[in-house]
Amino acid sequence: MSPAPLPSLAEIEERAPQSGKPIIAAPSRRSTDRPRARASQRRGVVRQSTVLEASVKLTVNLLLGVVAASTLARLVPYYRGQSAELSSLQQATHQLSQENQALWAEFSRNFAPEQASQVMQEQSGRQAATQMPVVWVDPLATPE
Length: 144
Prior knowledge:
By secondary structure, this protein is mainly alpha-helical. It has 3 helices and no strands. It starts with 8 loop residues before the first helix and ends in a 20-residue tail after the last helix.
């Protein structure tokens, strides 16, 4: 239900008596009550929108918090498993690097020119012509 349109100035002048005095409309009680009612309605709407906005924000933030907590709950066991696997791989790597160093030391000894005669003697059992074999005998032992 919409209010009736306000009359134009020309219509007001036609209806007014020709006494020469300007017509001043007295304010009606109804027109003064409407702004207060509208203001209270506006305040109510503003309060409702503020409450709605706050509740939406709270709901979204709670939802994000739940998602973050569930993600962390899934990531912590995964992280622990990965760190255990990493430590076992580091131990295996350390062991293999020690074996590698031992093999390189043996390789460099076998192919070093200054060690060649000693390596040949160790591997063949022969001795150089200038060397005499030394046999240790226990003086207390009885001969067989």
